[in-house]
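Our preliminary data section would be incomplete without showing what the modeling component actually yields. Below, a chain of 65 amino acids is followed by its predicted structure, encoded as tokens that our downstream tools consume directly.
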Amino acid sequence: MAKQWLTCRECHYVVDPDTQSCPNCGSSSLTEDWAGYVIIAHPETSEIAQKMEVTEPGKYALKVR
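Predicted structure:
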């Protein structure tokens, strides 16, 4: 069975299941309880990135519980 991706509760960055802390913000508060994600390639020109307050490219969860 495939491992569940983890998401940072602070910045919503989606990380590998073996990760201990978020490489984006440094938080160790990671969860498997999230839904949907968006890939942001160019946050400086993305309207979605502005609404989500994202400054780094990557995968971000839309809903984190």
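The beta strands are 6-8, 14-15, 30-31, 34-40, 58-64. The chain has a mean pLDDT of 96. Preliminary results of this kind motivate Aim 1 of the renewal.
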